[in-house]
Amino acid sequence: MMELSPFLTITLLSIGLSVIITVIYRVLTKPEEIRKMKDDMRFYKNKMNEAKKAGDRAKMNEYANEMLKASQRQFRSSMKPMMVTILIFFLLLGWLNTNFGGVRADFSGENEPVFSYAGEEHSMMYESNDEGFVTGVDFNDDGTFSEDERFANDEVFRYSGALWKPVTQMEGFFLFAEPKEEAVRFEMFIAEMPFELPLIGNYLSWFWWYFFISLPATFILRKLMGVV
Description:
The chain is of the alpha+beta class and 228 residues long. Helices cover 49% and strands 28% of the residues. It is built from 4 helices and 10 strands. The strands form 3 sheets. It has a 4-stranded antiparallel beta sheet with strand order 1-8-7-6, with no helix packed on it. A 4-stranded antiparallel beta sheet has the order 2-3-4-5, with no helix packed on it. Helix 1 (6-28) runs antiparallel to helix 3. It starts with 5 loop residues before the first helix and ends with a helix. The model has no long low-confidence stretch (mean pLDDT 84).
């Protein structure tokens, strides 16, 4: 699937995973029983509210216990498909992050750092300047770096069907992370939005593209297959 563009690969995998998850829930659960459990929960909730208004604490506790039992039955019914889909989900997410999470180049070793993606390696260059750093990638492997092959920090460029942004490599945990000057990371983006999203920006990583595709796909498939 790596022969396809990252955009198409993530799109197809997102829809495919939605289909698999929906089929698993359809096969391993009984929609009629789950609907009845939900109806029972609504029924006991309404009766509990009526008892509360009437000041009948005994009835209110009785209906609350019945509602809890219905909720527990629904949870047990969903446990098996939930465990199966979680396992599939995390296995696929690990693969996606490995292949579409970005490229890291380390300049601290003796060997020349490389930009490695989709089975191809290209030599790199790192230069410090007054504005931070400039990174070059010799995409045509001619031993030189043209203007099109040099990129400033945070500048997005396109290569092999994906969008990339060189950022300072951070090491450490969250707020305690510090920049590692001898390394640079290329963040990979799958799609460019025509508008800026809050907290995300104009560019979507594989995770956000997967999220925006799988959410409506799963909703539509569950409706079509009668999964509740």
